[in-house]
Amino acid sequence: MAKKVLVTGGTGYIGSHTAVELQQAGYDVSVIDSLHNSEISVLKGIEGVTGRAPRFDQFDLCDSIKLHSFFENHSGIEAIVHFAAYKAVGESVYRPMMYYRNNLVSLMNLLAMMSEFGIRNMVFSSSCTVYGQPTKLPVTEDAPIQPALSPYGNTKQICEEIIKDTVRSGESVKAISLRYFNPIGAHPSALIGELPRGVPENLVPFITQTAIGLREQLKVYGDDYDTPDGSCIRDYLHVVDLAKAHVISVTRLIENTNRNDYEVFNLGTGKGVSVLEAISSFERVSGIKLNYQVVGRRPGDIEQIWADPSYANRELGWKTVSSLDEAMKSAWDWEKQYRNK
Fold first, then answer.
1. Is the CB of residue 244 less than 8 Å from the CB of residue 316?
2. What is the pLDDT of residues 197-235, one digit of tens each?
3. 198 domain-assigned
4. Is residue 246 in a domain?
5. Is 27 annotated in the active site?
6. Where in the sequence is the domain holding 52, given as residue range(s)?
7. For position 171, what pLDDT does the model report?
8. Catalytic option among 27, 152, 180, 225
9. Within a domain: residue 197?
């Protein structure tokens, strides 16, 4: 009998790729998503890859009545992978209350249901934004949590604290927080990928949309940072590599091979790449010269960050396998497939 896993935000970018990897690992996947920032067509994409669409319910996790009803009707769930959250750093600066209400209330509702329905295991989608601008690079899990530079980053910090306190309280909940660096790319089938609503906040979908002619010009936010080429530095990892870490984490919790009831892992490549280097990588694999312009810095952006993923490499037996160029090529293949449909 396949073990049941709930993926919240499972039609989103990372959620959909994780649903695929969970299904391929033999798990029985259910998805809840409000479709606030994703499309129902993603379910068809998942089905195209795995041969079956996950069970799907559309509602907002902040609606505790609907969430309670869901758990009454879906017994036997052994783990929850919680992605559902608003995630745009820039937008959160201008709409902080929207971010605090959505990202915190949804998590608290889920934890309350886990307690009521006896669900023990949660994998939480966290972020390297919890580190703010680190004083030391690369970043280990022991790095101090700096004051967040955006409401989005602050919600991730607060959510981690809520989970940690819940675990400590004796609620019989175990959890793993996965602190992602910068996921990019798409499934090699080109059936699912990053599909932001409206104007993309993330670099790579803006790159691919500019290349295909949907956007007139790509903006590079700042070339006066204290970095080799003046642009921000991030740690870009392939989304499929990232998704596989969630499967490992779910299995670790269900099989009780976790060392502690609350664990944290950095997920990245361990290599910093500048925005301008990322653009060069895309131009190399696509053969397209991008129209981009350097503009002023963007509120909430940090200068540079990349992971020390050695703890996750050692403890989870996980590491990234795809290169930057491979991730960029998969993102471009997805963009072309999606626009040509």
1. no
2. 888 888 999 999 999 999 999 999 999 999 999 999 999
3. no
4. yes
5. no
6. 4-185+237-267
7. 79
8. 152
9. no
